[in-house]
Request: fold
Amino acid sequence: MRRKTKLIHGGNPFDPHTGAVSIPIYQVSTYKQDDIGVHKGYEYSRTGNPTRHALERYVAELEEGVRGFAFSSGMAAIHAVFSLLSSGDHIILTDDVYGGTYRIVTRVLSRLGIEVTFIDTTKQEELDKALRPNTKALFVETPTNPLLKVTDIAKISEWAKHRKLLFIVDNTFSTPYWQNPIALGADIVLHSATKYIGGHSDVVAGLAVVNSEKLGEELHFVQNATGAVLGPQDSWLLMRGLKTLGLRMEAHEENARAIASYLSGSDAVLCIHYPGLPSHPQHELAKQQARGFGGIISFDVGSADNASRVIKLLKYFTLAESLGAVESLISVPAQMTHASIPSERRAQLGITDGLIRISVGIEDYADLIEDLEQGLRA
Ligand SMILES: *Cc1c(COP(=O)(O)O)cnc(C)c1O
Reply:
């Protein structure tokens, strides 16, 4: 099955009980048992719910994995995956991960005795330096947020395999439509489904897909034990979103390419980060490991004042946290999504005060470019 067909026919596209072509919202907490322990596969909706299961099977197939899991947010999915580790374990992470990921490892996991090291995972030699005898996992985000750095998934999966590390990839920016980390060697793929998978700024959700039955059993144990499951209504919304993921990603990409090429020629822009530009340091790698470059662009306008001036003038870019929706969104990472990262660390990473991140929507790109033109001219 090709990707576009899989988005429509993947998972279990029909309700097995009624044939309904939209999986019903099983708004239910518990299930009648015919005798003690005799039931139709469902006992309690934290453990399993038919609507959530349909989504979980669907995303597992889209990510070319073995089992999928749906959580109440991207952070809940990340937390569940980190709960596979124990006190005394060490994790290596990409240095410019999502601010919430930075926060959970430095301020929650650290209290539970889990050690972490942040490195530039685009550089192989940094991996060797960060390795410790108690290293158990490698967590990579690619492309990263907000600097769009690209890590070679296949190459470092080999490195991780030889060292028996759990290799986790946050695939939120690329989505299963453009990139499949499990096919490139990852053990677990994570998504903030709040972003492109939901796609319409109306759900907060997280997804995880694993590459083996064994990991599937372990993660299901954690999901059921900790309980941050996605409700049936939101599971249904994600399935609805996934049906048009291909169409939306193609549209985001077309617009993002046009805008990136406009911004690269603008005098008001000091530098621009977009993996689809030949000037991007990992452009060739991005082309090879993903089928598209995505819809996120970041660019530097020189100062926090300039950034706030531009943002005030824009009509079609909504100032908001989040990304991946049909409408274009704009943010200043240093003051918004990445505010939980200390300022010295932000400076080291290159998340400058004048850095603007746009999540390009699916509007007509001519309108978006005109809007940016008038904003940047001022
Ligand atoms: C938003 C985001 C998260 C967190 O997901 P929530 O759904 O907001 O909890 C994790 N990783 C990335 C890359 C994100 O963009």
The chain is about 40% helix and 15% strand.
